[in-house]
Structures are given as structure tokens and as C-alpha cells.
Design a protein that fits this description.
With about 120 residues, this protein is an all-alpha fold. The chain folds into two domains: about 1-85, Hypothetical Protein Yqey, Chain: A, domain1 (Orthogonal Bundle), CATH 1.10.1510; about 95-125, no CATH class. It is built from six helices and no strands. The protein has helices at about 1-10, 15-35, 45-65, 70-85, 95-105, 115-125. Helix 2 crosses helix 4 (about 70-85). The longest helix has 24 residues, at about 45-65. It is extended.
Amino acid sequence: MINDQIKSALKAGDKTRLDSLRYLMSQLQNAQINKGRNNELTQVEFQQIVKKIIKNSEEAIEQYRQGNRSDLVESESAKLDVLKELIPQPLSDKEIKSLIGQVIKQSGGRADGQTVARLAASLSQ
């Protein structure tokens, strides 16, 4: 998947996308080496690697902003946009409320609110 996107970016001459994907590919290869040759990375591990890179990029953007380096903020933001395309986007508040509403409707609202909040928090970690 990533290799195909790298090829497309190369053909399109999209340097920002190409650089972002190549960096991701190197991080994935490092993780694969650490895991062992015979063990493939899972989808969860892939997403964890992408999220880690995204977090690092967001921190870099903040530092660039503090240093008044708008050129670097713009460049890093473009790379960040490419990486964010590779992971599922979080649900909106509206979508989450809808799902909760469906569960309450199906269960008849028999759960204690504090218990639900505690369990939801434990699942999101």
C-alpha cells in the first residue's frame, strides 16, 4: 500500500507527499526489523507508528511556531496532512452521541452513568 503511494507521488512529482511516505516507510522497516523477519506488522502496530510520527510532527510544529519559523510550520503541516490520511479519523461528537443513543435505546438505559464513563475511559486507552 505505502509502496504504491510512493510510486504515485514520485510520478506526480509531489515532493512533500513523497518525503512523508518515505519517512514513514523507513519507520515501518525499523519496526519490522525490531519485531523480527518472520513477523508482519499488524494494522494496529501500523497505526501506532503513524500516530507516533503525527504526534512528533505536531510537537515540531508547535516549536516552530514558538520560534517564529512559519516556513517550517507550513512544510511540517503539509507532511502532517499526508500522514493523517493514513489512519482512520476519530468520530465526531455527533457520531459518538448517535452511537451512545443507539446503545441506550437497545439496552433500555439500564446502565449507571458513572460506570459507563469509567468503562469508556478504560477502553479508549
